């Protein structure tokens, strides 16, 4: 019952088992641990005395203390971002050339190489090389993991599996905070070398697991390796390679790919100008990824501690930890409802919740006067303390809304909306835009926030900026994001062709069979075959008893190839089975 409410009921008429794909999807999701841990660890490490002792170059701060200079800190932090951006862009060429699985393995290799450099570093330049390589690995993994997951997952639980990736990111962030607290008390370089080195443990486990995992059937079809695709699908669905349901699923993926290729090529130019509606789809992915950052999450992750200090909290480390725990735990509700609510509703509700929190914070701050100067610590004025306590509460609620919606669902949608031919490229460009904004916000906001010459002096009113972007996000989702839950990746392609406006997408019912369209000789607009096949094949996106291919639907079409005739007979023999994963 609860499973049904989550939208997790495997349709009764789906052949085979979904268990292998689910287990593999969850395991691969743990690639997010590297993302979260690596981005989270540096904050604590930079604050460790042993780190400063090892890497300082003699800079003394205003209090006369020998420490790292601001520019050294900036470059150490920035190097990871530069690496992630490059890594995200690299993910497409390697993912399309070597396959998704092998590319994840290589990315983890590059990441580990970077980590080893960091652990062994005793001078800043070596550390920087290490951070750049580790960043490349993380950036590539951040594209390839959701890509791998979406291409092998059954449609009825695909969103939840991709959400598990964000859950791992939040677990990684939390783990980094905990490890930093534990090791910061150690004397000597082990205080920072242990948190750095620990990343290798999971990298090894993940690599070993990936060695025995299948490549995604969709990549293999794209690469023309049909037999390998059949074997992969047979492992994922626990079906014999001669099983009609398996043959049918493969044929549909293949026919869809051929159809998409007939519409336009698969170059980088095509992800912006190609058909069908690739520009709109790329804009949706990039927009979502950028807005995910513009909701201000990393401002809170990176600068939130200042608020907790300002609110008279004696242990800002503990409060940061509590925020990380909220971030982790709140991802679970999102993961639970992403199928039953759908992507659009979750994103809109999340953006409304975040907007209310951000605007409340900004308004309260303006009303009480920005007595607390960001970055400059405490204020004992009781009015400010109460104000700041309100801020903490709303920051916590904001984190809840982010973690339950935009945190995971951004990855879900960007892994679903592109056709196979450009999926890796478009995902890599949209993910790179996330990293670019991540970097921009981490480095730009202090300039917006701080007082003084050359600074914006916004203080906590910067929350107006995040709140405004949350409102933009509501409209963006309403106008641009198509509802992709419960339908296969191939049916999402059909939806983009047949539904002109995102707000009508929820009621879309797939009815094309790309195989039949191919057999009829599809036109490059898709219009002709649609007219002939529409309404003959009416699977329901919501019903678990929906059938993709009814006997009537199949028999009304004259298949041109004899191989296809044979498959059709087999399909008719086994009755109403949902073949679309
Ligand atoms: O959970 C917060 C984390 O999630 C991300 O937005 C990725 O989805 C990161 O940029 C951020 O640090």
Written account of the structure:
Residues 540-555 have a biased composition (Low complexity). Helix content is 70%, strand content 0%. By secondary structure, the protein is mainly alpha-helical. Helix 3 (31-46) runs antiparallel to helix 7 (124-152), helix 5 (70-98) runs parallel beside helix 7 and helix 6 (100-120) packs antiparallel against helix 7. The chain starts with a helix and ends in a 7-residue tail after the last helix. The structure holds beta-D-fructofuranose. Beta-D-fructofuranose is lined by residues 39, 166, 169-170, 292, 297-298, 301, 327, 407, 438. Beta-D-fructofuranose binds at residues 39, 166, 169-170, 292, 297-298, 301, 327, 407, 438.
Short overview:
Residues 540-555 have a biased composition (Low complexity). The chain crosses the membrane at residues 21-46, 73-95, 102-119, 125-148, 160-182, 194-213, 290-311, 317-339, 346-369, 389-414, 426-443, 463-481. This protein is mainly α and 581 residues long.
Task: State the main characteristics.
mainly alpha, globular, binds beta-D-fructofuranose, Glucose transporter, Sugar_transporter_CS
Bound molecules: beta-D-fructofuranose
Proper CATH architecture: Up-down Bundle
Please identify which CATH superfamily we are dealing with: MFS general substrate transporter like domains
Which fold name fills CATH's third level, the topology? Growth Hormone, Chain: A
Indicate the percent of residues in helices: over 70%
Distance between the termini: 22 Å
- The chain-level structural class is mainly alpha
Sheet with most strands: none
User: What percent of residues are in strands?
Assistant: under 5%
Could you give the order of the helices and strands? Answer: HHHHHHHHHHHHHHHHHHHHHHHHHH
Number of domains: 1
The beta-strand count equals 0
Task: Indicate the low-confidence ranges by residue numbers.
Answer: 373-378, 524-539, 543-563, 567-577
Q: Overall 3D geometry? A: globular
Q: Count helical runs.
A: 26
Radius of gyration: 25 Å
CATH class: Mainly Alpha
Protein name: Glucose transporter
Organism: Coniochaeta pulveracea
Membrane topology: Multi-pass membrane protein
Family: Belongs to the major facilitator superfamily. Sugar transporter (TC 2.A.1.1) family.
């Amino acid at each position: 019952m609860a499973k049904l409410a989550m939208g997790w009921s495997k349709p009764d008429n789906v052949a085979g088992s979904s268990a292998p794909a689910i287990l593999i999807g969850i395991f691969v999701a743990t690639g997010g641990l590297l993302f979260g841990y690596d981005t989270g660890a540096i904050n604590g490490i930079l604050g460790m005395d042993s780190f400063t002792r090892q890497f300082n170059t003699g800079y003394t701060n205003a209090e006369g203390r020998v420490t790292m200079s601001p520019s050294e800190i900036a470059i150490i932090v920035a190097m990871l971002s530069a690496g992630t951006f490059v890594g995200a862009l690299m993910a497409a060429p390697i993912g399309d050339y070597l396959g998704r699985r092998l590319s994840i393995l290589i990315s983890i290799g590059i990441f580990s190489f970077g980590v080893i450099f960091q652990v062994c570093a005793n001078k800043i330049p070596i550390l920087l090389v290490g951070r750049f390589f580790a960043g490349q690995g993380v950036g590539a993994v951040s594209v390839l993991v959701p890509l791998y997951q979406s291409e092998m997952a059954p449609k009825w639980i695909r969103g939840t599996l991709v959400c598990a990736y964000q859950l791992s990111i939040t677990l990684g962030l939390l783990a980094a905070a905990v490890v930093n607290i534990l090791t910061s008390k150690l004397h000597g370089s082990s205080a920072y070398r242990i948190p750095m080195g620990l990343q290798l443990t999971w990298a090894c486990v993940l690599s070993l697991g990936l060695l025995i995992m299948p490549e995604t059937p969709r990549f293999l079809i794209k690469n023309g390796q049909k037999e390998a695709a059949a074997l992969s699908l047979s492992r994922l669905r626990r079906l014999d390679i001669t099983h009609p349901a398996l043959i049918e699923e493969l044929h549909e993926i293949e026919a869809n790919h051929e159809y998409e290729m007939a519409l336009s090529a698969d170059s980088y130019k095509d992800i912006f100008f190609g058909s069908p509606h690739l520009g709109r789809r790329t804009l949706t992915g990039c927009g979502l990824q950028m807005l995910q950052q513009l909701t201000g999450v990393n401002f809170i992750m990176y600068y939130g501690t200042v608020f907790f200090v300002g609110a008279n909290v004696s242990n800002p480390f503990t409060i940061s930890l509590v925020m990380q725990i909220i971030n982790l735990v709140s991802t679970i509700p999102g993961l639970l409802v992403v199928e039953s609510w759908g992507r659009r509703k979750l994103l809109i509700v999340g953006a409304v919740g975040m907007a209310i929190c951000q605007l409340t914070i900004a308004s309260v701050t303006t009303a009480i006067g920005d007595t607390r100067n960001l970055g400059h610590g405490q204020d004992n004025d009781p009015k400010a303390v109460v104000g700041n306590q309100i801020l903490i509460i709303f920051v916590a609620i904001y984190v809840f809304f982010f973690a339950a919606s935009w945190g995971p669902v951004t990855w879900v949608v960007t892994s679903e909306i592109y056709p196979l031919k450009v999926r890796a490229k478009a995902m890599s460009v949209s993910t790179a835009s996330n990293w670019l904004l991540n970097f921009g916000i981490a480095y730009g906001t202090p300039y917006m926030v701080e007082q003084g010459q050359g600074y914006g002096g916004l203080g906590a009113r910067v929350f107006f900026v995040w709140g405004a972007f949350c409102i933009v996000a509501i409209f963006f989702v309403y106008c641009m994001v198509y509802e992709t839950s419960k339908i296969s990746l191939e049916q999402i392609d059909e939806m983009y062709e047949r539904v002109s406006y995102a707000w009508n997408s929820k009621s879309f019912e797939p009815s094309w069979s790309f195989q039949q369209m191919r057999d009829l000789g599809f036109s490059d607009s898709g219009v002709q075959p649609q007219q002939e096949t529409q309404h003959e094949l009416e699977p329901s996106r919501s019903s678990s008893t929906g059938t993709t291919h009814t006997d009537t639907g199949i028999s009304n079409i004259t298949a041109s190839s004899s191989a296809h005739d044979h498959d059709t007979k087999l399909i008719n023999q086994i009755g109403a089975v949902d073949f679309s994963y």
